[in-house]
Automatic annotation (TrEMBL):
Residues 10-319 form the Enoyl reductase (ER) domain. This is Zinc-binding dehydrogenase. It comes from Streptomyces similanensis. SMART domains: PKS_ER (SM00829). Signal peptide: none annotated. Gene3D superfamilies: Medium-chain alcohol dehydrogenases, catalytic domain (3.90.180.10), NAD(P)-binding Rossmann-like Domain (3.40.50.720). Keywords: NADP.
Length: 321
């Protein structure tokens, strides 16, 4: 089968299409004929070699999120999975390929009306948005800032905050055009990446911040929490924050602020599955919108990664074998 591996760590040109043997599902796994592959930020991080210390080597077959049709099952798996359209988490490898395998507990059947491309924009990131808002104890009427809202986590967080009755849904993004697209998803105010702009009626403080960005600017946004505000860090696409950012929390002691990290790895599998399943059903009904930036053939993985690197992706880019 055709697959995309990292020939050399570094920029997108280091990716290469190769022929490799198709994987065979082991005990507890299903085999999938892949129809859509979600291209995530973590794939770019692995491609650059930034996770080499965690055992990722050149030659690695990228990809963690696919959708397609189950073609075979391993020992101990109900044969009725065969022929079903599914979404699957493949771990941190094996997704950029014509065929993939996944543990059956990481596989979810797709409802009618949900395309494979839609599924790989929502399956991984949608639950993160849900649980991050839950972790932030978001309540109707509160003002919410989604920092880094134009990514796959952000576009869902914006929609969930808006329909959850937020008093304001404020976003940061890099351009007015991206801001308009976020307004279309429910944002009420658009800030630039540094937190400026937003207009005269933009809230000056936030009850909840869902932060995908981190980076050197994080303390500025901590300072903009209202009294009893909750800041939940879900990603670091802008790099690590300054090491002493916690001193801002202590300096604002009398505001009773909270800072939390959130990883969906800390949520029990059945809970994640239930939320993913509900979100898939909502997306199939059009109640929750998926945002596919572009669908490219698997052989254009280099272009897909270049688009990610230049920051032009809005939502998620999808590859199809
Ligand atoms: N917590 C979890 O369980 C979990 C699960 C999966 C992934 N993650 C993490 O979530 C992140 C990826 O999420 P995603 O796919 O939604 O993000 P993404 O698409 O990679 O980025 C989100 C947005 O952030 C903005 N951005 C990028 N670089 C920035 C910078 N240097 N400064 C300010 N803004 C910047 C960009 O929008 P603009 O250009 O419009 O500003 C981008 O569209 C990664 O850090 C990943 O490790 C966390």
């Amino acid at each position: 089968m055709r697959a995309v591996v990292i020939r050399t760590f570094g920029d997108a040109d280091g990716l290469e299409v190769v022929e490799v043997p198709a994987p065979v599902p082991g005990p507890g796994q299903v085999g999938i004929a892949v129809a859509a592959i979600g291209v995530g930020g973590v794939d770019a991080v692995i491609r650059r070699g930034q996770l080499a210390a965690y055992g990722f080597r050149e030659g690695h077959l990228l990809g963690s999120e696919v959708a397609g049709t189950v073609t075979s099952v391993g020992a101990g798996v109900d044969a009725s999975w065969t022929g079903r359209r599914v979404w699957a988490f493949t771990g941190l490898s094996g997704g950029y390929a014509e065929r993939a395998v996944a543990a059956v507990e990481d596989v979810l059947a797709l409802p009618e009306g949900l395309t494979c491309a839609d599924a790989v924009t929502l399956g991984g990131s949608g639950p993160v948005a849900h649980f991050a808002l839950e972790r932030a104890r978001f309540a109707p009427g509160e003002s919410v800032l989604v920092r880094g809202a134009a990514g796959s986590i952000g576009v869902t967080a914006v929609q969930l905050a808006a329909r959850g009755g937020a008093g304001a849904v404020v976003v940061t993004t890099a351009s007015a055009e991206r801001g308009d697209r976020l307004r279309d998803l429910g944002a009420t105010h658009v800030l630039d990446r540094s937190g400026g702009g937003g207009g005269p009626d933009a809230p000056s403080g936030f009850d909840v911040v869902i932060d995908v960005v981190g980076g050197p600017r994080l303390p500025y946004f901590l300072d903009r929490l209202n009294a009893n505000g909750r800041f939940v860090a879900v990603g670091v696409v802008g790099g690590q924050p300054p090491a002493d950012f916690g001193t801002r929390l202590l300096a604002a002691f009398r505001k009773s602020l909270s800072f939390a990290t959130f990883s969906s790895d800390s949520v029990p599998g059945p809970e994640r599955r239930a939320v993913r399943s509900a979100q898939f059903a909502e997306a199939a009904r059009g109640v929750l919108r998926t945002v596919v930036h572009e669908v490219l053939p698997l052989g254009e993985a280099v272009s897909a990664h270049r688009r990610m690197d230049t920051g032009e992706v809005f939502g998620r880019i999808v590859l199809t074998p």
